[in-house]
Amino acid sequence: MSIVYRPHQIEPVPPRFEEEFVRGGWRRVENIFNMRTTVVLRWLDQCDRVRLKALRDRYRRGDLSALDEVRGVSVASVVVSVEG
User: Fold this and answer.
1) How many C-beta atoms surround the C-beta of residue 16 within 10 A?
2) What is the CA radius of gyration of the chain?
3) Contact 79, 64 (CB under 8 A)
4) Domain residue limits, the chain
């Protein structure tokens, strides 16, 4: 028997969900957003689970640019202005 969700029952993906998942994984998003496992699984599917897991793996190995990718920031597009 499958569960049918009505639109008013489906919680939207929070704005910082992807970033928080990359930073701390499953437990972090469960604790921050205080949601059931089924909801977190749905959010992961809506946000491309494979991509987020790959970014999380890179971040855990020390690649901080994974956070920039999830934020949509291109390292090449960041300009630092220094007045001297």
Assistant:
1) 14
2) 16
3) no
4) 7-69
Cβ neighbourhood burial of 54 (10 Å; 0-12, 13-18, 19+)? middle
57-80 confidence digits (pLDDT tens): 999 999 999 999 988 865 554 455
Q: Give the integer Cα–Cα distance in Å for 56 and 50.
A: 10
Tell me if 23 sits within 8 A of 59, measured CB to CB.
Answer: yes
Q: What is the per-residue pLDDT across 14-56, written as a single tens digit (0 to 9) for each?
A: 999 999 999 999 999 999 999 888 889 999 999 999 999 999 9
As given in the structure block, the two tokens for residue 79 are 């300009």
Q: Which of 71, 6, 13, 2 is nearest to 42 (CA)?
A: 13
Q: Give this prediction's pTM.
A: 0.74
Report the first-to-last Cα separation within the chain, whole angstroms: 68
Distance from the Cα of residue 82 to its chain's centroid: 32
